[in-house]
Specification:
The chain is an alpha/beta fold and 798 residues long. The protein has 26 helices and 22 strands. Helix content is 36%, strand content 13%. Helix 2 (67-84) packs parallel to helix 3. The relative contact order is 0.09.
């Protein structure tokens, strides 16, 4: 918070004077007029002539019901931001509140600054109206195109988690968050109420939730709005909040009550922060929450065709749907729009009158112009240390073993230590930081925690920057809000359970893709996943913990935004981590094991291999330069890489005359055609690596059909045979997991024998020996409970 800002330096204790309330009402009416105009009007924006059908859009799209409440909140946030000199952003949770937020950004001037062709005059107002939910225009929800937004309104439930993510390590920022009736019923939002137990009043900003209850969703009552006030009050107090209730349908009374509530809430926040920052108070604050109950579709039509509309679900979208064809509806629309008295709100040129703008902040304090809502403006690069300090020595491939994520933990700990002053890096995860071998982080920071502590607890800290909570939704929401406001982070998660956030990452990818098309949106740090405790080493937890499909989900999405990496050892993981932590505007998925893994590449070789994304490991194969290989053994993922190299070792001994090429893939998008993904290979590159006419046996970390989908257009696709996970799992031994899914070394050798032309007859005894080894394996593990020594003790011969 700037030195001169004082959250308590607001209006008089008895609330705003009548003149101030009149100005607030004028702004609110102007915003309501603009919101309704966007839904209906194609022209005649100031109603200078009576409305005619040709003034109305041919398709009426948009959502009116939530707009008056959002306009009310925006109006009153303007007042306190200007009066108190606050830096603030607002997360607009209700799904299709676009008309309101667009209206307010146009009123404050930030919209016209970003889009100069939509000026703050009559012509600009007409363009604002015309473009809304119109071909070539802007969406009906709060989207990247909306100045001041950092939250996609297309899917409900994430607003409060995003708000807390934005507040973390932003001590001078107020993050208001409007939560609608509908999204208040979702699982992610319900969990997000607990985020207040992680907010540090010293180093973090403040979140002011505003629970807006207008009674209905699309056509059903909302649960929280039907709770008696006392019951809802007790619920919110149980979450650790101090509720402030504002209820009404008389504009004058609601303006007065909401102004008082805003002042009371901000005074409460200021006192809590001052107590923590200046007096050393460590008790967890009970932060305020405003519960705002106003009618759905407030100030719109009371009834239409004899049916009640205002205050009911019928006002959710377009209250008057037949205005082009029904003269009565058209006249009713005109009466509705003129009820806001636009001639008092806009001058003859269509510019907002001074009274309307009396409480609008200036410059970057406007909600539509806050740099925190365009986080790339504030981004500082991470101080990434030299990888040489953390790399493991590799004198020859496969001679040593390390836990890749533990090696990565040392790098992350140094980054955490080096950002102690800037506080722009966090690691989030669902209770798995230690389990995932990243506990070196605790030498640099603790785990964020504001609730009670017991003597047995470890590594908890009020100012900690590792964040653990057993909700993948909340972890994802925190990190999205954190990166969208310009900071860096990593989400560490068990591979099988990251699916819980499939919908959330989908929305974030859509946001990034759209933001990349807007020149005024600056690139933000990437959202980085580390998926570990993966499918092939969930032998102890069993079938429920085995699912590698998140990669499939992500690779279906916008290719310019998504990246997927499967580093095969510790040094390649370091190289990949260095890359993704430097990147901007991506969703990076890194899949790496936490169990001891062979070290295949030294750091220089790892860097070169990761830069290629896919390449031949000459030392692992038996081909020479005189002729093409007889077979290509390809792999992606740490366990598949080990099995391919073990298979190559077997082939070297059993079929020494066979020319084998070993190809490892780190960057999965390299398999796509160049025209489909910026990392994709040209056909010439792909053909040189995998050949066009030789069998390719591909051992892949996940579901095998993904490789076929990525490579289906390649010339040699008919020769491609993929082994991977096929939903065969249980609690068993590590090697039995790959055997059950036919990904083991013996099966890979059998595939080579089956697929190399002419080899089947000549190598029948080799194939039989491999099948016998699989049979021997089954008997061994059932007797001894562990893998056979020839598997457990295997290492690359060098």
């Amino acid at each position: 918070m700037p030195e001169h800002a004082d959250r308590t330096a607001g209006p008089r204790p008895d609330g705003p004077a009548e003149e101030e309330l009149a100005a607030l009402d004028a702004h609110w009416r102007a915003a309501n007029y603009l919101a309704a105009g966007q839904i209906y009007l194609l022209s005649n924006p100031l109603l200078t002539v009576p409305l005619e059908p040709e003034h109305i859009k041919p398709r009426l799209l948009g959502h009116w019901g939530t707009s008056p409440g959002l306009n009310l909140v925006h109006t009153h946030l303007n007042r306190v931001i200007k009066a108190r000199g606050l830096d603030a952003v607002c997360v607009w949770g209700p799904g299709h509140g676009g008309p309101a937020v667009l209206a307010n950004s146009w009123l404050e001037g930030s919209y016209s600054e970003v889009y100069p062709d939509v000026g703050r005059d009559a012509d600009g107002m007409e363009r604002l109206f015309r473009q809304f939910s119109f071909p070539g225009g802007v969406p009906s929800h709060v989207a990247p195109e909306t100045p001041g937004s950092l939250h996609e309104g297309g899917e409900l439930g994430y607003s409060l988690a995003h708000a807390y993510g934005a507040a973390l390590d932003n001590p001078g920022l107020l993050v208001a968050c409007v939560i609608g009736d509908g999204e208040a019923e979702t699982g992610p939002l319900a969990t997000s109420w607990h985020a207040n137990k992680f907010l540090d009043p010293v180093h973090d900003g403040a979140v002011l939730p505003i629970l807006h209850l207008n009674g209905y969703k699309i056509d059903n009552p909302a649960v929280l709005s039907r709770l008696p006030e006392g019951e809802l009050d007790r619920l919110l107090r149980g979450y650790g909040h101090e509720p402030i209730h504002v209820t009404g349908d008389d504009p004058a009374e609601v303006h007065r009550a909401l102004a008082h509530a805003m002042d009371r809430a901000l005074d409460h926040i200021a006192l809590a922060q001052r107590a923590a920052r200046e007096e050393g108070v460590t008790d967890r604050p009970h932060w305020p929450v405003i519960v705002l109950r106003t009618p759905k579709g407030w100030t719109g039509p009371d009834e239409v065709d004899g049916l009640p509309v205002e205050g009911t679900w019928r006002s959710h979208q377009v209250p008057l749907a037949g205005v082009r064809d029904n003269p009565d509806h058209l006249r009713q629309l005109e009466r509705w729009l003129r009820s806001y008295r636009p001639e008092e709100l806009f001058d003859e040129e269509g510019r907002p009158r001074p009274q309307v703008l009396a409480h609008v902040p200036e410059g970057k304090r406007r909600l539509g112009a806050s740099p925190h809502a365009n986080g790339g403006l504030l981004t500082r690069s991470l101080p990434l240390p030299p990888l040489e300090h953390y790399a493991v020595p590799v004198d020859k491939p496969g001679a040593t073993l390390h836990e890749p994520t533990r090696v990565l933990g040392g790098l992350l700990a140094q980054i955490m230590a080096d950002t102690a002053g800037s506080r722009n890096f966090r690691v989030v995860g669902p209770d798995e930081t230690t389990s995932n071998r990243l506990d070196a982080l605790y030498a640099a920071t603790g785990k964020a925690w504001q609730a009670a502590e017991l003597p047995v607890d470890e590594h908890l800290a009020h100012d900690g920057r590792v964040m653990e909570v057993l909700s993948e939704h909340l972890c994802q929401g925190w990190l999205e809000g954190y990166t969208l406001t310009g900071r860096h982070g990593l989400f560490s998660c068990y591979e099988a359970f990251v699916h819980i956030v499939d919908s959330m990452v989908n929305q974030h990818i859509k946001w990034l893709r759209t933001a990349r098309t807007l020149p005024w949106r600056r690139p933000v740090p990437s959202l980085n996943y580390l998926l570990t405790s993966h499918v092939w080493r969930q032998d102890h937890n069993g079938f429920s913990h085995q699912d590698p499909g998140f990669v499939d989900h992500v690779l279906n999405k916008s290719p310019e935004v998504v990246r997927v990496y499967l580093p095969p050892d510790a040094n390649t993981l370091l190289s990949v981590a260095d890359h993704v932590l430097r990147s901007r505007d991506y969703v990076n998925v890194v899949v790496a094991g936490k169990q001891p893994c062979f070290d295949w590449l030294g750091l220089d070789e790892a860097r070169a291999h990761c830069a290629r994304g896919a390449g031949i490991w000459e030392w692992a194969g038996t081909e020479n330069g005189d002729r093409p290989p007889d077979v290509v053994l390809a792999c992606a993922g740490d366990v598949p890489t080990q099995e391919v190299l073990a298979a190559a070792d077997l082939l070297r001994h059993e079929l020494p005359q066979l020319a084998v090429r070993v190809v490892n893939v780190v960057d999965m998008t390299r398999l796509l055609p160049r025209e489909e993904h910026p990392h994709g290979m040209t056909d010439a590159e792909f053909d040189a690596l995998f050949t066009t006419d030789r069998p390719v046996v591909f051992a892949y970390h996940g579901y095998p059909w993904l490789i076929h989908r990525l490579a289906y257009r390649r010339a040699g696709h008919a020769n491609l045979h993929v082994r991977g996970y096929k939903e065969a799992g249980t609690t068993t031994t590590p090697f039995d997991m790959v055997v059950r899914n036919d990904l083991d070394r013996y099966r890979l050798v059998m595939d080579v024998v089956d697929r190399v032309p002419g080899l089947g007859v000549r190598a029948a005894s080799v194939r039989q020996a491999m099948a016998d080894a699989r049979t021997r394996h089954h008997a061994w593990i059932r007797e001894h409970g562990v893998d056979m020594p020839e598997v457990a003790d295997w290492s690359w011969p060098g």
